[in-house]
Amino acid sequence: MGMLFEVVMVLLIISAALLIHELGHAVGLVVKNKKVKPEVYLGSLSKEKKLKLSLGRITCYITIALSGICRISNESEISPLTNKQRIIFAAGGPIASLLGFAIFYLSSHFVPGVMGIVSNRVAFVSLITFFLTVIPYNYPAFFKHVSGFQSDGLYILNIIREMKNHSKAVS
């Protein structure tokens, strides 16, 4: 029974860190575009058998998961994101993970007992999430629901390259 509890706690901690990260992407979208409606998914892009949580224009579909994704639900209704908006969107996740690390790590020193330990673990999973997403690479197959997608770092790097190539072509 004790080991099962620990496994469930680890999965909940990972899911909490992923939710923080994906909400960072969603907030980046909402701040820079007044019409966008982001959706955050933990696990697959399915809405079935998930807790639905609405936070203003942001809708979250939450379950215990090892991956997450943020997407625009009304993409056909809005104008395409500018490069600046795309960079803010991509950077929002890693920034939220880094802030999550700082907040949960600091709070773990002031919260006693099990909650302090859980806070500490969420902090370190957030830090790991930051590094796993800020390094530029394509996600491998074992990242099931995001396999083949670009990490946030690679996505930002490609936007910057695209902007440089465009400015060279114009000049």
Can you put this structure into words, describing what you see?
- This is Peptidase M50 domain-containing protein.
- InterPro entries: Peptidase_M50.
- The chain starts with a helix and ends with a helix.
- The chain has helices spanning 2-32, 83-108, 113-134, 152-170; strands spanning 38-42, 51-55, 58-62, 68-72.
- The chain is α+β, with helices and mostly antiparallel strands and 171 residues long.
- Helix 1 (2-32) packs antiparallel against helix 2 and helix 2 (83-108) runs antiparallel to helix 4.
Which structural category fits the helices and strands? alpha+beta
Q: Overall 3D geometry?
A: globular
* Oligomer class: single chain
Q: Count structural domains.
A: 1
Q: Evaluate the radius of gyration.
A: 17 Å
Whole-number average pLDDT?
A: 94
Order of helices and strands: HEEEEHHH
Q: Name the beta content range.
A: 5-15%
The side-by-side strand order for the widest beta sheet comes to: 2-3-1-4
Largest sheet geometry: 4 strands, mixed
List keywords for this structure.
alpha+beta; 171 residues; 4 helices; globular; 4 strands
Explain the layout of strands and helices.
Elements: H1 2-32, E1 38-42, E2 51-55, E3 58-62, E4 68-72, H2 83-108, H3 113-134, H4 152-170
Parallel strand pairs: 1-3
Antiparallel strand pairs: 1-4, 2-3
Keywords: Membrane, Transmembrane, Transmembrane helix
Transmembrane segments: 55-74, 86-106, 118-139
Main location: membrane
Give a concise summary:
By secondary structure, the chain is an alpha+beta fold.
